[in-house]
Amino acid sequence: MRFNKLPGTSYQDPAEIDVQLDLIYHMWDLPQYTDFWQAESAQATAELKPIEDIRVGTRDEERIDVFKAAKPNAPIVIFVHGGWWMMCTRKFFTCVARGLNERGYTVIISDYALTPKVGIPDITNATRAAVIWAYENAESINGDKERIFVTGHSAGGHQTGMIAITDWSHFGVPQDVVKGAAPISGVFDLRPFQYSWLQDRLQLSTESALLESPLFHISDAVPPNFVILGDEESVEFHTQSEKYHQALLDAGHQSKLLAVPYGDHQTVLQTLIDPESEMTQELDDFFRGC
C-alpha cells in the first residue's frame, strides 16, 4: 500500500511530526527545565541590573530588558526567546545575556504576546519593533546603531530568520539595519507545524505557514547568518537548519552552519550563559566579523 506524504512535508503521519517537534513533553522534565532557567535568570538580573520592561510594540507584552555594555558604542545583540510561540517570557531567559554582555555587548532580551492570543505574524512584528527600537535608541544604551545583530533560540531562532529576510524599507530604517543573524535551533519552514500537536495553538493556514517561513523569502538583501543547533537534536531540526543554510548559500549569501557536539535543544542554549564557552566565543567572533 502506498501512503501519500502530508503536503509540504516529508511525513505520512502527523504522529511522526509530533515526535520530531515535541521537545518539552517528550524529551525533558518540564519543571526541571523551567526551574533552571528561572533561577539562572533571577541571578543574572540581580547581578547585571538591566533596564527592565521597556515597551516597544503595540501590545503590552511587547517589551524588552536591556543589559547595557560597560562602555559606549558597543555592538548590540537582540535575543529572542523560544517556547514554541506559546509559552515562556523573556524573564525566563535573561541569563542568556550574561555571556555576550560580559564580552562587551549591549544585550536586549525581547518579548512578544503568545499564541493563540496572537498569530505568528504578530510575533514577527513584535521582534521587528525591538530591532527598530534598538536602532533609534542605540546611543542611550551604550550601543552602536551600525552594529545591531539578532539571535534567538527555537521559536526565537525562527524569529531570527524572519528578521534576516525582512524588507526594512517598509519600516523606516536602513535595509542593512541588522548586520548579522544567528538562529539557534531554529525552524525555517512552518508547513509541518500545521499537522503537529502545536496547530491548535498556532492556527496556521497554508498561506500563513508559507508567509512566516524564512526559507521561502530569501532576497538579495540578507545579512550574514550563523546557523546553529545541537548535534543531538531531532532529524527535523537538522533538516530545517541545513536547508536554510544551503538556501542562503545558493542565493549568494554568507552562511555558516554549526552542529554543537553533544548539544541538545536545551544545552546548546545554556552555553551562552558562560562568557568563556566555545559557543559564546564563536558568536562573538561571528558578530565582530560581520
Automatic annotation (TrEMBL):
Signal peptide from the UniProt entry: none
Pfam families: BD-FAE
Protein keywords: Hydrolase
Domain BD-FAE-like: 68-248
Domain of life: Bacteria
InterPro entries reported in the protein's UniProt record: AB_hydrolase_fold, BD-FAE-like_dom, GDXG_lipolytic_enzyme
Gene Ontology MF terms in the entry: hydrolase activity
Name assigned to this protein: Alpha/beta hydrolase
Species whose genome carries this gene: Mycolicibacterium diernhoferi
